[in-house]
Amino acid sequence: MTMLLFGPELYFLLVALVLFFFSLRRTPKVKADHTVATVLALVGFLVAVACIGQKGELFFKAYRVDLFSQIFKAALALGLFLVFMISRNLAGIEERLHAEFYLFLTTCTLGMMMLVSSVELLTIYVSLELSSYSLYILVPMRRGDDIDVEAGIKYLFIGAVSSGFMLFGLSYIFGATHSTYLTDIIPKMPELLASPIGLVGVLLSLAGFFFKLSVFPFHFWAPDVYQGGANQVVTFIATASKAAAVALVLRIAALGAGAGYDFAQALVILSIISMTLGNLVAIIQKDFKRMLAYSSIAHAGYVLIGILAFNEAGYSSAVYYALAYLIMNFTVFMVLNEVARDGRDLKIAELAGLYHRSPLLSMSLILGIFALAGVPPSIGFTGKLLLFTSAMNQGYFLLVLIGAVNGTISLYYYLRVIYAAYFIKGEGLPPIQLSWPTKMLNYALCATILFFGVAPDSIIELARAAVRTVL
Amino acid sequence: MGFNIGSVDPLFLACFAIVALPALAFGTIMIFTWRRDNLSLGISLTCSTIPLILAWWLFFTVKGATLAEPIILQVNWMVSDAVVVPFGFHLDPVSLLMLVIVATISWLIQIYSIGYMEGDPGFARYYADLSLFGMAMLSLVSASGMVQLFISWELVGLASYLLIGFWYEKFSASEAGKKAFVVTRFGDIGFYMGLVFLLYFMKDISLFGLGIADINNIGLTQKLTEAQITLCALLIFCGVAGKSAQFPIHVWLPDAMEGPTPVSALLHSATMVAAGVYLMTRLFPFFAASATAMAVVLAISTITLILSSTIGMVARDIKQVWAYSTISQLGFMAMGLAAAGLAHGTLFAGYYHLTTHAAFKALLFLCAGVFIHHFGTNDFFVMSKDGGRKLMIPMVTVTIAALALAGIFPFSGFFSKELVLAQLWHLDNKLWVGLGLFGAFLTAYYTFRVIFVLLFPRPDDHPAWQTYYVREEVAGHGHGAHGHEEEEAHGSHGHGGHGDHHGVPWVMAFPLIVLAGFTLVLGFMQTRIEKFLLGESHPHELNYLLLVLAVGCALGGIGMAWLDWGRARANWSGFLSKFPMLENFFIQKWYMDHFWRWFLNTVIYGTFSRIFTYNDRRVVDGGVDAVALGTIGSGRLLSFIQTAFLQLNLLFMVLVLAGVGIYLLMGR
């Protein structure tokens, strides 16, 4: 019965097997594959939700199933399902590779699910690499010019270097504590952090997750990968993979909780640079995905604010923000996917006239963008409010001030998107027809963004309960 | 929130449904069904019928809620440390009664509008806006805290704006909507400041939600000084004055008549404008704690009463007459409350007048709506000529309502007016009751001016028409033109044809009959309502002198109207024409619009606007431009880090990481 604890992972393993067999076919069946994969992912999401209450430990205590991990598993499954839903027009990838696309996204999700449950250093590392390798393959899979290859190589190299740092850091921690179990390590941490080896170890271990989260200085891959990858792949990287990264940063950062002022100060600096750099450079971007890449760097900075508070309120607000970010960023990417049906890179100016071409999409866009910008009463506003409040209570006034200024700067480029969609006339562009599942998806996303922005308490409570199991 | 349905108080659920269903209707219609008129109508009607039933159910079943000990049901809406903003419901007799009034009249208006708005291109939008109003108003009425109340208050203002400017393609309508919104906002600034000051004075952050019960306890607990209470009460009264159209910011209400007539009946006579007075009732113990504030309120409401009655005497647009009568009656209610506050009375008189007024004023407007719908004009002289008296049901009901408005026994207005006047009588200074009686006289006069003109049409060659046409030139524009526009804005639907004088559709006639029923019955419910509100009924010692005076004033007004407008030889000039200066003063609406125009032009645009524009252009814009350019420039500068050279990127990563490491190690 203990294997039931492993339910969601087992399920996705099976899905990966099914999809693997699909990929063996000589003649691809594009539509059928998509339908099967989407349905399987939906069932996967339901399985993950059904397993949300599970608790227990597996594999010689290297693997812990608790509310924290299960919430993130549900979120990851949701992310996978959503990405599959918008993959009906997979124009960016050659048809014979579609089955592989589904396969690797599933293995990546599987890896990240294991990642959020891992409480042992080697398990963490293996799961992380499972998810990363899948993405390394997915990014250059794009059809067409060579920009995807450049992006793929950049992603691989930066990822490899970060992994190297991380392994190095993990080895320090192991060397100093003689254990790879987080449960053993955490009690020794305060003492260990007094010595250089502990500090450097934690710092280097964080590198791997900063890479995933695209925090400065590990952000270089983001703009190129966002622009170079197929739209659907980027959607996945920008949503589900970020959520997993936040989950792991939370687990690892708990190691540094006892380090006190200096360690937090280092994170403060990284956070400030991430926010400022991301927002400033986003302003001058013309490509929509590239702009979103820089915006994701800025958002990574915001999430760090919650993490460096090192307390329950901060962590729970980071969890809330990660979940909110998944929804709102996905909303924007969904619009991008629908507008760029042929899988091309979308310039911001190409959104012109969207209001007339599809009022529904432009409503989703405006809500998603406002949520990213943190305009009330959206889910993004509540998230930012929680993050800033938690930092404020810890006395980081300057950080909050800079965060607020950054929020204002970000409005500039976010509003440019709205401006293009609503106020620039798109001459002669045909209206965009949406299928009914897409319409439902639009309504559901809009409702979610608004509802949890107005009544965030249930999610906050959930996040608090989840965080309590980590701390 | 984190509650499960099983553990929730059914009372809370009922209240929640009352507020949430109209909101649901608004959202559904606006997003999904705005193309389908009948479906939208069905949704809107369903979502107003259920609250209606629930409101009546609450009214009859909720026991044990008294003014002193209300039932408060709330959940935490926003929590941030010690600051808790609740969302919930404050049930006591005052709110229960108002819930019933609002739900009933909203429902009747929705029924009535089926006929009135039939064929309008914006039919679904109209019902969505009505639903939005219903939600906001019901939430305002039942709110447990001032934050929720204020939000609802503003939403009501928004709904009013949307509905006044419903025919937005018409310039005057969109202008009127804007005027209403801006003018009431002007008062709301005061309201908001009042709340902020209240919070500041109380120095208790846990009261951030500003529960209504808490505020009402302030007067008892004496935590605040008299001056502080006065300041807050007066500031809050600014909001009341804006919403309830009290002098000097009443100017928006007559213009608000640009909206469809059912809207005028619902928002701008019976319910929304009463929200101001309702707020005073709601916070009556708080207001009553400051005698100074109450004296100011009394003065302002008395001015309002007289001012609007006199303007009502000369208006010739039927909706304008009722609009000014609304303003004057609102003034009358506020007088009743203020006098009660000064003389340590109860809120019953003013609130009772609000109740009866809601019924008969809605009736007056709905009748006017029938006439307007039928004859395509707002000018009641023209209606009279075209045979207005032949419309049986509206003619009978409008007469009933007019008798109530004039304060004639046995109609409801008689009882409530009597109470307010009695309340004024208790004041030491008898000037107030004198002015109140004078107002009652004027009310009877201008009301029956309309009734007599409608009832006794003159043949075309009657000398009265001479006066009418001369007057039209004197008045210049008049208001006759609006009516035609309202009818045009309706679109091209044919309504039964002019020849058919019996063609009042039953959906329009039914609300008239129901409201007429209320107008007849409510007066005799006085003791019961008082018992319901206050928990006990004081036997009113009949003040025969006052009774004679009041009835005398009312009958005098009617008699005067008969002499001027009713009898066969009357030449429709009115006794006012003996005083041309005065008449012109009234026709020009006491020059209040001129005053505000002047005030806007010289003070706002001429002084503040100019200074701020200069500041904006030179200082703010210049600064913003500099910052923006600097920001974009720094964006360009930073983007150089993003080079294509992977080696440099990796090197940079390592260097930064090393830098952070060194920083950490140096720090110890």
Structure description:
- The complex is a heterodimer of chains A (471) and B (668).
- With 471 residues, chain A is mainly alpha-helical.
- Chain A has one domain.
- Helices cover 75% and strands 1% of the residues of chain A.
- In chain A, strands 1-2 form a two-stranded antiparallel sheet.
- The radius of gyration of chain A is 21 Å and the shape is globular.
- The mean pLDDT of chain A is 83.
- Chain B is mainly α and 668 residues long.
- Helix content of chain B is 72%, strand content 3%.
- In chain B, strands 1-2 form a two-stranded antiparallel ribbon.
- In chain B, a hairpin with a 2-residue loop joins strand 1 (71-80) and strand 2 (83-91).
- In chain B, helix 19 runs parallel beside helix 24 (544-566).
- The radius of gyration of chain B is 28 Å and the shape is globular.
- The chains are: A mainly alpha (471), B mainly alpha (668).
- The interface between A and B is large, with 41 and 34 residues.
Protein topology:
The complex is a heterodimer of chains A (471) and B (668).
Chain A: H1 7-24, H2 30-50, E1 56-58, E2 63-65, H3 67-85, H4 98-117, H5 121-138, H6 147-177, H7 182-193, H8 196-213, H9 221-228, H10 231-238, H11 240-253, H12 261-283, H13 288-307, H14 312-339, H15 354-357, H16 359-373, H17 379-393, H18 397-423, H19 436-454, H20 457-470
Antiparallel strand pairs in A: 1-2
Helix pairs in contact in A: 1-2, 1-4, 2-3, 3-4, 3-10, 3-11, 3-14, 3-20, 4-5, 4-11, 5-6, 6-7, 6-8, 6-9, 8-11, 9-13, 10-14, 11-14, 12-13, 12-18, 13-14, 13-17, 13-18, 14-16, 14-17, 14-19, 14-20, 16-18, 16-19, 17-18, 17-19
Chain B: H1 10-33, H2 37-61, E1 71-80, E2 83-91, H3 93-116, H4 123-142, H5 146-164, H6 171-202, H7 212-221, H8 226-243, H9 252-255, H10 261-270, H11 274-282, H12 284-288, H13 291-312, H14 318-342, H15 348-375, H16 380-385, H17 392-406, H18 412-425, H19 431-455, H20 463-475, H21 480-489, H22 506-522, H23 526-534, H24 544-566, H25 580-587, H26 592-638, H27 646-666
Helix pairs in contact in B: 1-2, 1-4, 2-3, 2-4, 3-4, 3-10, 3-15, 3-22, 4-5, 5-6, 6-8, 8-11, 8-13, 10-14, 10-15, 11-14, 11-15, 13-14, 13-19, 14-15, 14-18, 14-19, 15-17, 15-18, 15-22, 17-19, 17-22, 18-19, 19-24
